[in-house]
Structures are given as structure tokens and as C-alpha cells.
């Protein structure tokens, strides 16, 4: 049985029946229908294989980039198996700005619209003009405009109505030719009139200083989503616990999950081989040959402790995969 350890960034030692690398969507559809239990993987940076997976795993290696321009925008259509950070770097080298705040996010281009990856004040959905996909059952090719993708915080239609039914083949980005730096978040606000390259380098430095490199310490980035609370719930928390950080988000207030986990004393704590990162407690790490059970125990203990103390249910941001497919905690 082939190992999945190097195919997901948490590096748990799970195996599966077979691993297919596909470089055409027709090949993908043929092979997919030949097997009953399947899992479609991008870069493996947001998926944890907790135990041996009974089925076949499909790894997307669709490649290719095409460019056109309008008077005001660069329009770039990118195949979904391209690497995200390499794409951001290439765009910058071409002088196409907009994605620099999203430098160094691990994963594939096709995964970006699914969970609407975001960091340092920017979400991928802000720049996605269209997503092309194939229906896995019928093989039909469809396209959705960005405005039809229902992008929200770590959310999109690809996580709801279309989840499990499609293969994203291409993502089309529209980047304005006019440079509009976004420096609202944290340390970026200290920069004065930064170039896109400065933002790119600053984001890379912040990420390297805060987030462990999955190549040396297995992890899947933020393990939980930041909860969005009703304004009244947030006010109750402030009344009871004092200075609770919060950022307005639509109708509610987004509170850093890291803050709750930190307050509950989890920083640096270990269960088996899993360690809650001592600098960024939203990240769980594979510190010492962790098992899937260690991951579940740590995640459940954090969720239970935070919920008991603050009445805030945390929701995993990562996808957890058991022997027969995705599971929820
Ligand atoms: N905080 C603490 N204690 C800590 C660390 C953080 O209380 O030890 C609190 C502080 O209030 C801090 C706040 O958490 O101001 C926010 O921390 P940070 O800027 O590190 O960001 P985050 O909310 O924890 C989110 C994303 C990250 C993204 C950063 C920057 C989610 C789930 N995570 O993290 O995305 O890089 O913002 O934009 O939204 C990922 O999704 O994998 C990811 C790394």
C-alpha cells in the first residue's frame, strides 16, 4: 500500500490503496469511476489522513497558464494543479499585483477558491473572476463567475452545494493594472507606500517567523477557523473576560481562535506526538511521530475546553479524513 505521509503536510503515516497523479481531467474522470472509494487531493496542506484510507487518492497535476488583458486588468487563467506560492511569485515577477499578501500559503491553485484562502487582509476570492470545473458524474464542463461562487470567510459554494460533485480545472484571476496595496493587517500597517515586492517579502518574513515550516515540522496551518460571533455574544464575553480581541465581519465579530486557545493554556501542550504550537496556538504540529488518535484527542480537548469556558464552538478548518472518507469532530 502506498504511503500518504509525504502527500499531506501534517505527515501522518497513513496509507491508501493507490495514488493516481492525473494531468488531464479526462484521465481523472475515467479512473475515478473505476473505483468505489476515492479522495481528491490538491497540495495536501489542508487535509489530514488520520488513519489508513480504504480507497484511492487522486493528486491533481493539471498545469498551464494563459494570459490576456483588458484596458484596466490582467486576466490570467490558471490550471488547478499549479502551486499557489509559485503562482504568486510569478505574478509579481510579471508586474501583476494583487496576490502578494497571499505569498507562501502552501497548497494548489484549485484549492484556493474552495476555502477562499486568505491572509493579511486579502482573500483569494477578491481576485477570482471565474472558476471552471467538470461535473464528476456527467463530465460536463461548467464555469461560475466569481460573484456566483458565494465567497465568504474560509467558505464558498465549493464547500456547500458543489462539494464532492466536481473537479475544479481552472481558476481565472482578474488583477487590476492600477496598484492598490492592502496594508490594513497587523505588521503591514507599519509599511509606508510599500511596493508589491515589499509586501510580498514582509508577508513571507511574518509567516516564516510565526508559522512552522511543514517540511521540517508537520502541520496544516490554522487547525480551526476563527469563530464569527453575534455582536451580543461578543459583548457578553467582553463584559465577563475584559479585553477580548475582535474584528467586525459582516453582521458579527470575528474573534481569533488563537486567543481562546491561548487563554485556555494550550500553548506548547502536547498529547502523544501532537503539540499545540508555542507561538501560534491555532496551529497543531506533528512534533513527535503523532498518530491520528493524538490529533483527534488534542482537537477535541481544545474544542471542549474553549466551549465550556466561553460557550464558543470551534470548528476545524482542516479536512480530516478517516478510513472511508472525510469525518467531522
Ligand atoms: N493571538 C493570541 N495568542 C497568540 C497568537 C495570536 O491571543 O499566541 C491572537 C491575537 O489577538 C492576535 C490574533 O490572535 O492578534 C490573530 O493572530 P494572527 O495574526 O496570527 O492570525 P490568526 O487569526 O490566528 C489568521 C488565518 C491565517 C492567516 C493569518 C493572517 C484563519 C483560520 N487563520 O490567523 O491563515 O495567515 O490570519 O492573516 O483565519 C491558515 O488558514 O492556515 C492560516 C495560517
Tell me about this structure.
It is built from 7 helices and 20 strands. It has 329 residues and is α+β, with helices and mostly antiparallel strands. The strands form 6 sheets. Strands 5-6-11-9-10 form a 5-stranded antiparallel sheet, with no helix packed on it. It has a 4-stranded antiparallel sheet with strand order 12-18-17-16. Helices cover 23% and strands 27% of the residues.
In short:
This protein is of the alpha+beta class and 329 residues long. 23% of the residues lie in helices and 27% in strands. The longest helix has 19 residues, at 292-310.
How much helicity do the residues have? Answer: 10-25%
Q: What is the CATH third-level topology name of the largest domain? A: Uridine Diphospho-n-acetylenolpyruvylglucosamine Reductase, domain 3
Q: Can you name the CATH architecture of the largest domain?
A: 2-Layer Sandwich
Q: Helix count?
A: 7
Rounded to an integer, what's the Rg over CA atoms?
Answer: 20 Å
Mean pLDDT: 97
Largest sheet, in brief, is: 5 strands, antiparallel
**What is the 3D form?**
globular
- Strand coverage percent: 25-35%
Bound molecules: uridine-diphosphate-2(N-acetylglucosaminyl) butyric acid
> Topology as H/E string?
EHEEEEEHHEEEEEHEEHEEHEEEHEE
Enumerate the strands of the largest sheet in spatial order, edge to edge or round the barrel: 5-6-11-9-10
Which stretches of 5+ consecutive residues score pLDDT under 50?
none
Q: Distance N terminus to C terminus? A: 27 Å
Amino acid at each position: 500500500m502506498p504511503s500518504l505521509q509525504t502527500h499531506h503536510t501534517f505527515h501522518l503515516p497513513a496509507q491508501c490503496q493507490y495514488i493516481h497523479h492525473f494531468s488531464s481531467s479526462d484521465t481523472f474522470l475515467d479512473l475515478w469511476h473505476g473505483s468505489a472509494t476515492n479522495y481528491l487531493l490538491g497540495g495536501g496542506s489542508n487535509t489530514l489522513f488520520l488513519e489508513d484510507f480504504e480507497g484511492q487518492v487522486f493528486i491533481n497535476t493539471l498545469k498551464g497558464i494563459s494570459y490576456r488583458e483588458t484596458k484596466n486588468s490582467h486576466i490570467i487563467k490558471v490550471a488547478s494543479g499549479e502551486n499557489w506560492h509559485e503562482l504568486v511569485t510569478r505574478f509579481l515577477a510579471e508586474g501583476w499585483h494583487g496576490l502578494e499578501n497571499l505569498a507562501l500559503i502552501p497548497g494548489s491553485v484549485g484549492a484556493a477558491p474552495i476555502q477562499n484562502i486568505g491572509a493579511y487582509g486579502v482573500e483569494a476570492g477578491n481576485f477570482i473572476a471565474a472558476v471552471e470545473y467538470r461535473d464528476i458524474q456527467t463530465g460536463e464542463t461548467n464555469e461560475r463567475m466569481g460573484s456566483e461562487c458565494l465567497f465568504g470567510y474560509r467558505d464558498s459554494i465549493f464547500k456547500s452545494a458543489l462539494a464532492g460533485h466536481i473537479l475544479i480545472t481552472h481558476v481565472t484571476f482578474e488583477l487590476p493594472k492600477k496598484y492598490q496595496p492592502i496594508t490594513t493587517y497587523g505588521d503591514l500597517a507599519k509599511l509606508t507606500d510599500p511596493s508589491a515586492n515589499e509586501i510580498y517579502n514582509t508577508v513571507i518574513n511574518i509567516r516564516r517567523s510565526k508559522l512552522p515550516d511543514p517540511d521540517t515540522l508537520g502541520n496544516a496551518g490554522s487547525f480551526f477557523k476563527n469563530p464569527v460571533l453575534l455582536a451580543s455574544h461578543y459583548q457578553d464575553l467582553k463584559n465577563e473576560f475584559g479585553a477580548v480581541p475582535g474584528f467586525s465581519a459582516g453582521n458579527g465579530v470575528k474573534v481569533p481562535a488563537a486567543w481562546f486557545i491561548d487563554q485556555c493554556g494550550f500553548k506548547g501542550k502536547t498529547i502523544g506526538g501532537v503539540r499545540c504550537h508555542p507561538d501560534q496556538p491555532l496551529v497543531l504540529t506533528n512534533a513527535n511521530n503523532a498518530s491520528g488518535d493524538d490529533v483527534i484527542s488534542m482537537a477535541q480537548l481544545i474544542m471542549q475546553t474553549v466551549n465550556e469556558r466561553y460557550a464558543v464552538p470551534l470548528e476545524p478548518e482542516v479536512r480530516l479524513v478517516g478510513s472511508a472518507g472525510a469525518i467531522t469532530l
